[in-house]
Amino acid sequence: MLKDILENYENYQPGLSIDCVIFGFHDNQLKVLLIKIPHRETWSLPGGFIPVNQDIDVAAVTVLNERTGVDGIFLRQFATFGKVKRNDQHFSKEALEYLEIFEEKAKWLTRRFVTIGYYALVDFLKTIPKPANKDEIIEWIDHKEVPELILDHKEILGKALATLRMELNLMPVGYNLLPEKFTIPELQKLYETILDKKLDRRNFLRKITNIGILTKLDEKKSNVAHKAPNLYTFDKDKYKEVLKNGLNQGW
Amino acid sequence: MLKDILENYENYQPGLSIDCVIFGFHDNQLKVLLIKIPHRETWSLPGGFIPVNQDIDVAAVTVLNERTGVDGIFLRQFATFGKVKRNDQHFSKEALEYLEIFEEKAKWLTRRFVTIGYYALVDFLKTIPKPANKDEIIEWIDHKEVPELILDHKEILGKALATLRMELNLMPVGYNLLPEKFTIPELQKLYETILDKKLDRRNFLRKITNIGILTKLDEKKSNVAHKAPNLYTFDKDKYKEVLKNGLNQGW
């Protein structure tokens, strides 16, 4: 696919790329979608180039879809990364020769690239990646076990994670990530996993209740040995309203 | 200056620019620094291009300094703007001829540009702009009175303002924007001006006090007809600490 792009490199913005950080929640782990391309030992974030006739927000969706088969995700831009030397070691002379990339194409590919970061927090179970070609491996990897990544992708991932954590203070999270009916401890676990810290049970209950997005159901969780915890569901209208207006912790 | 850049356009990232939104607080107005260049009727944000040998964060400082003479400001990146058609009407054929920009230089200048937005909230009294050339006009304009701007600069300004408002929920604001000693009503006015809404006096007092960054002085404001309000100052160490860790409204 890189070959196709290089054949038509004039149709892409020079020196500008997009990288996507896709988080999924599963088994009380916050996982991130990573790709390993052929002939490379290290993993990378799914990324690509910007067609000159596509808005960058559209290009982000295209790039993610082409690299991972994943579609229909609302991607949020979080930062742009542009250190001078971020990609100057990326393609060695040998790699370019191996890939049969020469002259103008090699020049286009090895020039300085600035990259725009997009992220999303998605439903792990509904987000099934399919590699664009059979040599590529795509995997969900626990964010705590992420191996070495190419370029500055660790920094990009770190910034996306910091943004996600900050957003917990601005908007509700959980819809689409938890089952339809859930307990407060399950919701708390989601927050604890994202924030990577233990939260006080009473404090969490008070704060999450105050947001006004939860509906307490007339059911208890079954198959629980001890005192069965209450089940809750999100009040979708209120959830949407809070998403739009932000958590009411403002001035 | 554009001429100098075009003479050496290969030393700049193609299709990528930086625009700066500089806010200043004065006379209970939130003002923004705008430039009017020669031969154009409309105003613009101070912006420019990215030298291939500069990190983008460094280039932002350079661009701001070269366009406005303003230096020593901590600029924060807030978003990147990349709609396909954002600059395709910017330089007409006539304008290019008038400016004597032809061929490769014209092609470089009129290609699709993505722009990275940076913003800062600065001390109005210490931030004295100096135009880079005598035909340019630089002015502080009340954000509510901003005239027509070039390209998508209104959208960029709007997004910077939204980011600033959101940041009021994440970090303290006011240091360097208010005199050394100030009253709570003065601080409240700063918040009200940025947020563009009235705040409840008691609520504001409670919230701002809870942050723990204020030191109540043993002085009252003089020259006040009625009941003189207390004077406060920022506890600089605590202010810095809260800036670093964020407002404690988290989970």
Automatic annotation (TrEMBL), chains A, B:
It comes from the Bacteria. Residues 15-163 form the Nudix hydrolase domain. Keywords: Hydrolase. CDD domains: NUDIX_NadM_like (cd18873). The keyword Nuclease does not apply. This is NUDIX hydrolase. Signal peptide: none annotated. One of its GO terms (molecular function) is hydrolase activity. The keyword Thylakoid does not apply.
